[in-house]
Amino acid sequence: MTLHENEIPVDEAFVRSLLREQRPEWAGLPLAPAGAGTDNTMYRLGDDLVVRLPRTADGAPSLRKEQEWLPRLAPHLPCPVPEPVHAGAPTDAYPVPWSVHRWIDGEEPGPDTVRDWAAFGAGLAAVVRDLHRVDLMGATRADGLSWYRGGSLVPCDEWVGTSLDACRTLAGLDLDIDTLERLWLAALELPEPSGPHVWLHGDLRPANLLARDGAFHAVIDFGALSVGHPDAEHAPVWDLPPEARRAYWDTLSLDDLTWLRARAWAIAVGVAGIPYYWHTFPSFAAECRSRLRAILTDAATRRPDTSACRADAVDPFPGAVAAGDDRLTP
């Protein structure tokens, strides 16, 4: 499945050729596709390893970040995270770094893999809390660890507006784009975040989380690792059922302005993802649409006063949305 114009094609034979060249002791192990995201393709290698290959040359910095920082962050986190065991060198045929990590058993969270969504939300919040408390170890946003989601909403307004307009052109989308735009514009009037910079995973959507035995288990894919303000870190909770969102909020004791800025980030990422992946990655576009529907449901059942700057106007859990409602329906 090709998602980007400048994508580097790979298949099992090609991956095995990389292994023969750089890690011949692994070249004869069983190899099978293990999923693909928007930035990387994965192949399970034997029972204990996974090969991770960026789709484009733009993915090289993300891989290097994981290789440098995951070994230093892992001891501070309360759950398994990827462990790099080989930093693959670029070749003439594949001019991008690649890596091999330890395999982590688990399944993507969903109605069939999670028993208690409140416990799942609390478990995710505990990881976020501990990650945000880890010392920066001298790292700053200037050290290749700057990403837009750790900064201000305001510089994103132009592309978010373009994405909202693009969503309006999609037949069958069935979203209240005008309300999403109103919520986005209101968030631009909020005070800027003023707390210290922290470590950010950057992309805690369900595809980057693992459940095991019905409970929260692990966080994977740290390619968006960055340093910045934490507001956008909380945005993916709109991909989870309301029980998980409430437990997440309660565990972290988030203030209302942080929650409103997080909601705006969720809108931004959702409206950008839908038109970009509408034809090439329908399940990802559906994930974005489900997130935006959850936001709209919350907004429609809030108290009438929706002034963005009044803390007493915020009711982040105004009603129940059935867990799993059309979450991956195209």
TrEMBL record:
<dbReference type="Pfam" id="PF01636">
    <property type="entry name" value="APH"/>
</dbReference>
<dbReference type="InterPro" id="IPR011009">
    <property type="entry name" value="Kinase-like_dom_sf"/>
</dbReference>
<protein>
    <submittedName>
        <fullName>Aminoglycoside phosphotransferase family protein</fullName>
    </submittedName>
</protein>
<feature type="domain" description="Aminoglycoside phosphotransferase">
    <location>
        <begin position="32"/>
        <end position="262"/>
    </location>
</feature>
<dbReference type="InterPro" id="IPR051678">
    <property type="entry name" value="AGP_Transferase"/>
</dbReference>
<dbReference type="InterPro" id="IPR002575">
    <property type="entry name" value="Aminoglycoside_PTrfase"/>
</dbReference>
